[in-house]
From TrEMBL, chain A:
<feature type="transmembrane region" description="Helical">
    <location>
        <begin position="168"/>
        <end position="186"/>
    </location>
</feature>
<keyword id="KW-0472">Membrane</keyword>
<dbReference type="GO" id="GO:0005886">
    <property type="term" value="C:plasma membrane"/>
</dbReference>
<dbReference type="Pfam" id="PF09767">
    <property type="entry name" value="DUF2053"/>
</dbReference>
<feature type="transmembrane region" description="Helical">
    <location>
        <begin position="144"/>
        <end position="161"/>
    </location>
</feature>
<comment type="similarity">
    <text>Belongs to the TMEM147 family.</text>
</comment>
<keyword id="KW-0256">Endoplasmic reticulum</keyword>
<keyword id="KW-1133">Transmembrane helix</keyword>
<feature type="transmembrane region" description="Helical">
    <location>
        <begin position="198"/>
        <end position="220"/>
    </location>
</feature>
From TrEMBL, chain B:
<dbReference type="GO" id="GO:0005789">
    <property type="term" value="C:endoplasmic reticulum membrane"/>
</dbReference>
<keyword id="KW-0732">Signal</keyword>
<protein>
    <recommendedName>
        <fullName>BOS complex subunit NCLN</fullName>
    </recommendedName>
</protein>
<feature type="domain" description="Peptidase M28">
    <location>
        <begin position="214"/>
        <end position="374"/>
    </location>
</feature>
<keyword id="KW-0472">Membrane</keyword>
<dbReference type="GO" id="GO:0009966">
    <property type="term" value="P:regulation of signal transduction"/>
</dbReference>
<keyword id="KW-0812">Transmembrane</keyword>
<feature type="transmembrane region" description="Helical">
    <location>
        <begin position="512"/>
        <end position="531"/>
    </location>
</feature>
<keyword id="KW-1133">Transmembrane helix</keyword>
């Protein structure tokens, strides 16, 4: 019966990505290539991040929240933004519209992230007889992550790909992008520094992702109008 | 075309990889506990003990839980709270059980106190009764023992709570599952019993061609219990072995110097196979050569001399009026008087047609060698009774009593050897260089009390056998091992220790509910994304059938 649990959790973790691809026009415009390229860029970025973390961070014995270490981790996390920049601007994509480009990049990025971070724990943990809520919560977390990544990709495309933006909105765009990029550090702080329960952290992530995506959507629509 | 074939090849490779990965299972239990399996043996072809080893069932806290299917459940019972008569009824009615886990009280390695602890005695008595009942019954399901620790007690508490609330653990309810993955037990093909002997030769006068008389001091060192991994009998017969080793040490000091060497040979024997009608002793005696047998004056068998008691019994099979028996008895009694110890003579006739051998000296008597058994036990033990099982713990042995008994035996033996009967001499006085060594006795009692010594499971090279051999070779001139095969009346099966995994499993209904929730969430997500990006019309269009081709052709 535990394979059953594994399939449940896997469906919750990876299903949304597949559904996003199928349900939106992404599948019609055959943007699979873009997704795969974005996934590869994610892999390279993660490798670079790990090397930086190994070089600059100290391994602490206890699970305390050390502000200095966390700031450094956050800084290294901003490499993610650099990776997204590279994926959005430098990698050559087949001619697809701006709208779809950022969605495809965000989807590929989030899928690679979910695969790398959650497949192995799911495989090892959910198949055992012992039951914990952890894997279902991780599935929800990966959903939130998908939304956040797509929002970040949208903001990124706004920042780097769109030439004419209403100047009033530019600082808003940058702040929102900063907040979204810092989400991993914020969740880390909540989990370790404030010692929140995992379920509380996941609900915060879901809420934050919804709020951020809403703000991004409004910004995106607001920037659409002048580009007639 | 090519792309299609390549895709199929990749697909097949992925499927193969998935199948391989899926077969790897990683255990991830809430708790892992050491458990000890009940003994499985055949007595004259009759299967006895627990006949299964592998366990994989939900837990239940008792026999009368509402709605529990006992044949697919493991019952956890604290060993001291077992109601033997109701359990016996259940077993006699051939009740089926998934498994039985008995929890033993925490063991402590403390030595026995000077005053017998009342609760300790009650515990020992209850455990001994349970053990006796278990050993003489057959169980078609696995029976395991475990020591109570906080994990297990918490588990029992939670299981009892959910049972009381009418929700016993099962596949539909979820709950705790106990898993022991052990292979089925195999027969032990050549169970070896090993006798260890040491020879201390006496002083031969010049020109004396006759062999000196020999006195044998014998103690059996092996045990038998309901759980072979836990049968480390301290009183039966760890006390006897410790006494024998101390006597060997004392007399080896006396015999080291030719001026103090007695005119008797001393033969020390540590025999095995005692629970099985002293099988090892009879083999050992049969291997004696004729000269040794004729020179044997008598044998002193030591059995269970550690528990607090003011009486020592001298069990004999020769009629008590026999002059030689009377001599031995009076020697011991006169020494014992000084130590406030009462010695009594008890006679039990041997019935040659009955294969049951209750005392070790009976094996000597069957070979026409005079022998006695010294013991605190009053009644001859029944088959597989008082064989040093789980109930016989280190705490039940009182060191002071053991030392006192050693002194009594040593002094009376010395008076016999050196011809000082009736005289008030004290050879092994405290403070002299022949004084008894309490720490020596204590360390051997401790070692024996934590080593399980069920003979068929020891094999030829067990560390305890080598340790005893080495010790005897230090005190005697000639120490040797003798390996024999246990007679075929008893057949044993292996698999005595295992690891128990405790899992907390969710019920099947839970998995179904989650599947339903995830499925509906994904469908909702699909609908929302489809409608928001492609419009409602396209969405509805999925459901409308494509226009039939029939109309096109007309």
């Amino acid at each position: 019966m535990t394979f059953f649990h594994f399939f449940n959790c896997a469906a919750l973790t990876f299903g949304p990505h597949a559904i996003y691809y199928k349900a939106t026009p992404l599948s019609e415009y055959d943007t699979l290539g873009t997704c795969i390229k974005a996934a590869i860029v994610y892999l390279v970025t993660t490798l670079v991040k790990l090397i930086c973390q190994a070089t600059f961070l100290q391994v602490s014995e206890h699970d305390d929240f050390d502000l200095g270490q966390e700031l450094l981790k956050g800084l290294i996390g901003f490499l993610d933004v650099g990776g997204l920049y590279y994926a959005l601007t430098q990698v050559s994509h087949r001619s697809i519209s701006q709208d779809h480009k950022f969605q495809a990049v965000g989807l590929g990025w989030a899928f690679a992230d979910a695969l790398l971070h959650r497949l192995a724990p799911l495989w090892v943990g959910a198949k055992g007889l012992e039951f914990t809520w952890e894997h279902l919560l991780q599935g929800l977390e990966s959903n939130a992550n998908l939304v956040l990544t797509v929002s970040l990709a949208a903001l990124g495309s706004l920042m780097w790909l769109r030439k004419n933006k209403p100047s009033a909105l530019v600082p808003v765009i940058y702040t929102t992008a900063g907040v979204v990029a810092a989400m991993p550090s914020i969740t880390n702080y909540l989990r370790k520094g404030l010692a929140w329960e995992f379920s509380n952290v996941v609900s915060f992530e879901l809420l934050a992702s919804l709020v951020m995506s809403f703000i991004t959507w409004r910004l995106f629509c607001a920037c659409q109008r002048p580009a007639q | 075309m090519k792309g299609g074939r390549r895709q199929r090849a990749i697909g097949q490779a992925v499927v193969a990889l998935m199948t391989v990965l899926m077969s790897m299972v990683v255990a991830d239990a809430a708790a892992v506990v050491d458990v000890y399996r009940m003994i499985q043996y055949d007595l004259k072809g009759n299967p006895m003990g627990s006949r299964r080893a592998a366990l994989n069932h939900h837990t239940v806290s008792g026999f009368d839980v509402q709605g529990a299917d006992l044949s697919r459940a493991v019952v956890i019972l604290p060993a001291l709270k077992v109601n033997i008569s109701s359990l016996d009824e259940f077993v006699q009615n051939k009740g089926l059980l998934g498994g039985l886990l008995l929890l033993l009280p925490q063991r402590s390695d403390e030595t026995g106190g000077a005053e017998g602890d009342d609760s300790d005695e009650k515990v020992a008595k209850a455990l001994a009764e349970l053990e006796q009942w278990l050993v003489h019954n057959t169980f078609q399901y696995p029976v395991y023992f475990a020591y109570e620790d906080e994990n297990l007690l918490k588990l029992l508490h939670e299981v009892a709570a959910s049972d009381a609330a009418g929700r016993p653990a099962s596949a539909t309810n979820g709950g705790y599952k106990l898993v022991v993955s052990a292979p089925e037990a195999k027969k032990l093909t050549t169970p070896t019993i090993t006798n260890i002997q040491g020879w201390l030769p006496g002083l031969r006068a010049e020109g004396d061609s006759l062999m000196l008389p020999t006195i044998a001091i014998v103690a059996s060192y092996d045990t038998f219990g309901a759980a072979p991994a836990l049968a480390s009998g301290s009183d039966s017969n760890g006390s006897g072995v410790a006494m024998l080793l101390e006597l060997a040490r004392l007399f080896s000091r006396l015999y080291a110097n030719p001026n103090t060497r007695g005119r008797y040979n001393l033969l020390f024997g540590l025999t095995s196979g005692s629970p099985y009608n002293y099988n090892g002793t009879s083999n050992w005696l049969r291997n004696f050569d004729q000269r040794l047998r004729e020179s044997m004056e008598y044998a002193l068998c030591l059995n269970s001399l550690g528990s607090s008691s003011d009486r020592m019994l001298l069990h004999v099979s020769k009629p008590p009026e026999n002059a030689f028996i009377q001599q031995i008895f009076s020697e011991i009694e006169s020494v014992a008087k000084d130590s406030d110890l009462t010695v009594e003579l008890k006679h039990k006739k041997i019935n040659i047609s009955n294969s049951r051998v209750a005392w070790e000296h009976e094996q000597f008597s069957r070979q026409r060698i005079t022998a006695v058994t010294l013991s605190h036990l009053e009644e001859p033990p029944e088959l597989l009774q008082r064989t040093g099982g789980i109930a016989d713990i280190r705490r039940s042995v009182n060191e002071t009593v053991v030392l006192r008994n050693i002194k009594v035996v040593a002094e009376s033996l010395a008076r016999h050897i050196y011809g000082q009967q009736g005289k008030q001499v004290e050879l092994f006085a405290a403070g002299s260089n022949l004084a008894l060594n309490p720490s020596y006795v204590r360390s051997w009692l401790n070692l024996l009390g934590r080593t399980s010594r069920v003979a068929p499971f020891l094999g030829k090279n067990a560390p305890i056998i080598n340790a005893l051999h080495k010790e005897l070779s230090q005190h005697t001139k000639d120490a040797s091992l003798q390996h024999e095969t246990l007679d075929s009346t008893f057949l044993f099966y292996d698999s005595t220790k295992a690891q128990l995994n405790v899992y907390q499993v969710a019920s099947v209904t839970f998995d179904f509910i989650v599947a339903l929730a995830v499925g509906s969430y994904l469908m909702l997500l699909f609908i929302v994304l489809f409608i928001s990006t492609k419009g409602v019309k396209d969405f509805v269009g999925i459901f409308r059938k494509a226009p039939s081709r029939k109309y096109k052709s007309t």
